[in-house]
Design goal:
Length: about 180
């Protein structure tokens, strides 16, 4: 019979537990508590290790994402610059001709402008050039003045300077005059 069973039996019979039985019960409780403490400490150590690994994974993922963003930005600028190099070459070639006629200079400027527009379009830089009569859009147009006109109020009368978008975001709004209310 175990000490705990003896203690319970003595208590059932109305006998107070002996000092020996009390010490044995206390030792058994302490052993159980010690075993539970050891198990909890092991579980705590395991959870702490899992937490540290998760933190390291998060930091590594953040670093990789930051590196990828930096590379994407650098590549985007390189790609844009590369597409502008032929434009610079054309301008330099045109300036190298000392005795060009006005017609040749104009043809060269028009060809260079076509190259520039093409380079801008390849990089998603598109013109905002609203036609006369187009409804004024404050997200894409900037009204410089309102003028009396024979067209509906708050519509574009003329474009003073083209605007540009890049990847559907306004880089510069078009400067326009707008028809005044009648």
């Amino acid at each position: 019979m175990s000490d705990n069973q003896k203690t319970e039996q003595n208590q059932d019979l109305g006998h107070p537990p002996s000092a020996e039985e009390q010490l044995a019960a206390q030792a058994a409780n302490e052993a159980d508590a010690q075993a539970e403490l050891t198990a909890l400490q092991a579980k705590n150590a395991d959870l702490a290790e899992q937490y540290l690994r998760a933190q390291a994974d998060v930091q590594n993922t953040r670093k990789r994402a930051d590196d990828e963003i930096a590379k994407a930005r650098r590549f985007a600028v390189e790609s844009f610059a590369e597409s502008l190099l032929p434009v610079a070459d054309s301008l330099e070639a045109g300036l190298a001709i000392k005795d060009a006629t006005a017609e040749q200079v104009r043809e060269g400027a028009e060809a260079t402008l076509r190259q520039l527009r093409s380079a801008l379009e390849r990089n998603k830089v598109l013109e905002i050039n609203p036609a006369a009569g187009t409804r004024f859009d404050p997200h894409q147009h900037q009204a410089i003045s309102m003028v009396p006109a024979e067209q509906e109020a708050n519509t574009v009368v003329s474009v003073l300077q083209k605007g540009y978008t890049i990847a559907e975001r306004v880089l510069r709004p078009a400067l326009v005059t707008v028809a005044a209310p009648k």
